[in-house]
Design brief:
Elements lengths: L1 H11 L3 H4 E4 L5 E2 L3 E8 L4 E7 L3 H22 L6 H14 L2 H14 L6 E2 L12 E5 L4 E2 L3 H6 L4 H19 L1 E3 L7 E5 L6 E5 L5 E3 L2 H16 L2 H10 L6 H9 L3 H6 L8 H13 L1 H10 L2 H20 L5 H22 L3 H43 L1
Parallel strand pairs: 5-10
Antiparallel strand pairs: 1-3, 2-3, 3-4, 4-6, 7-9, 8-11, 9-10
Length: 393
């Protein structure tokens, strides 16, 4: 605690007792770079104070150097395993994650970017109590997004959370190309809003973001559209454009965490099975050298996206909503909007822009009709099932 207080004295120039009415010694959360404490300001507002461990800045450069030496040694011993991309990413991302002012700006940017989602809550930053090593923000309570018991206790719909999380990330990836890349359960909370009593997703820890280049983002859009539809020529074309080369079948499987059989059939039309998961885990062990080669080939922007996809899939697996039709519909909707926006920006005439907008509206309407049809079928099946149970009883 003395080290935490010393960082506050050095960076904010005052004793913690002068800045806060109370400051809880036990952290709300602790990680390798920092820990978060609950505190109360003199005006009565409750805040979360994220304080960086004092030796992290100096130690991180040594850690990266050690990592580089070890990776080179592993590559010398086992030439098939080339993980230099790991060192390169650490060198690029570590300084950004250690700058808490950068994290605060990311939080404000994503809050503004996704302000049309009433279910999203991003804590407000208190800039007068923030520095490169200290980030003071609004305190937001909630349960972790993978805590089904918390959701059941508070009347939170698991499917609604999963769908809204998909909407949020589809918009970040396909529309804006500015992606929160650390959605592990500790950084994604769910709660009932104290004012409206509506379900909210609270997004925390905005230190690690990936900005996607426009060409990369559009090819990624096209690839996901091909994967959803089972358009194999499109899967090959856009996988190759994203750097996968001849390893495009492996790339499609890694990206979707689905078997090649499911990818061929179109991932939106084939449900995930336990036997498929076992097959994927077995193949992952068999194809480690090829996976290593693939990670070296693809653009660096792809690496954090793969990590993000994996974390989101983990949440969906826990919530038992993985590969639901709503997630693919949300992705398709964002892909259509992203492609239409791109085409409008290239159009030379108002007539052409109008044609693009009409085609976009028609595609979105078809998607909405398909969603309505699925909902109606679900309601009908539910009604039949209930009637059957009553009859049997």
């Amino acid at each position: 605690m003395e080290e935490i207080q010393q960082v506050i004295r050095e960076d904010l120039g005052k004793e913690p007792s002068e800045l806060f009415v109370s400051f809880e010694e036990k952290p709300q959360g602790a990680a390798s770079l920092a820990q978060v404490h609950k505190a109360v300001l003199h005006d009565g507002r409750t805040v979360a104070v994220k304080v960086q461990h004092p030796k992290v800045q100096r130690q991180s450069s040594k850690d990266i150097m050690v990592m580089e030496v070890l990776v080179r040694a592993v590559h010398w011993l086992f030439p098939d395993f080339a993980f230099m991309w790991l060192v390169e990413e650490a060198k690029k991302n570590m300084p950004l994650e250690l700058d808490f002012l950068n994290e605060g700006h990311n939080a404000e940017r994503v809050a503004k970017m996704l302000s049309h989602f009433p279910f999203l809550k991003v804590p407000i930053i208190h800039w007068h109590l923030s520095t490169k090593r200290i980030l003071t923000m609004e305190f937001a309570e909630g349960g972790q997004v993978n805590d089904r018991d918390y959701m059941k206790k508070h009347g939170i719909n698991v499917n609604e959370i999963s769908e809204n999380l998909g909407k949020m990330y589809s918009e970040m990836i396909f529309i804006h190309g500015f992606v929160h890349c650390d959605p592990h359960p500790g950084n994604v909370l769910v709660r009932k809003c104290p004012q409206s009593n509506k379900t909210e997703i609270v997004l925390l820890d905005h230190g690690l973001y990936q900005t996607l280049q426009p060409d990369f983002r559009l090819d990624y859009c096209r690839l996901w559209q091909a994967l959803i539809k089972g358009d194999m020529s499109g899967v090959e074309r856009y996988s190759r454009r994203l750097g996968a080369g001849a390893l495009y079948p492996l790339f499609a499987c890694v990206l979707t965490a689905r078997s090649w059989t499911a990818v061929n059939a179109g991932i939106s039309s084939v449900p995930v099975t336990q036997s498929e998961d076992v097959e994927i885990r077995t193949n992952a062990a068999l194809y480690l050298p090829q996976i290593s080669e693939l990670l070296n080939r693809v653009p660096r922007q792809m690496l954090l996206l793969l990590k993000t996809n994996d974390l989101l899939r983990g949440i969906e697996t826990t919530l038992q909503t993985r590969a639901s039709s709503s997630s693919f519909i949300n992705m398709s909707r964002c892909c259509i909007r992203a492609m239409a926006r791109h085409k409008r920006s290239k159009a030379q005439s108002r007539r052409r822009r109008l044609q693009i907008t009409l085609a976009e509206s028609l595609s979105l309407w078809r998607l909405s009709m398909y969603e309505l049809l699925l909902w109606a079928k679900g309601c009908m099946l539910g009604h039949w099932f209930t009637a059957l149970l009553s009859f049997l009883h």
